[in-house]
Amino acid sequence: MQSFQLQEAWQRQISPDDKEQLIDLFNKTRNQMGETITCIPYRLAFNHRQDLLCTVLIHNTKDESIDLRNVMITIKKESKEVATNIFEDLPLQLPSKTSMPWTYIFPLNHYDTSLTIDDTNSIAVSLSEHTKNNNSF
């Protein structure tokens, strides 16, 4: 059975409203078919350096845990790639049958500046393992 989990840092810092909304998103999207790794967009935001912050709910519906320390994240809007970045050495392990929120930070030169916070519901976020061969999960 799929479970919802927050990393320790998230448990200390998440607002009650965000936690409730993420649990709602989890309940609406947890019944993914097959054994997959899926990223469900939750929120887009921008920080003071104009980096794009993309918060997703990652579902690992596989029977084994996955290591998400070296991944490439791609954001598409209307089938057009609008952001991509390689994230290396992140402290992210996702146990089997577990869903967890995570925020990926895209520097200014790694995303299309036409993206806005209102695009959250019109984007698709994909995750692939970053290796020399760039194999997907």
UniProtKB/TrEMBL annotation:
Stated name of the protein: SLAP domain-containing protein
- From what organism does this protein derive? Gracilibacillus halotolerans
Higher taxonomy: Bacteria, Bacillati, Bacillota, Bacilli, Bacillales
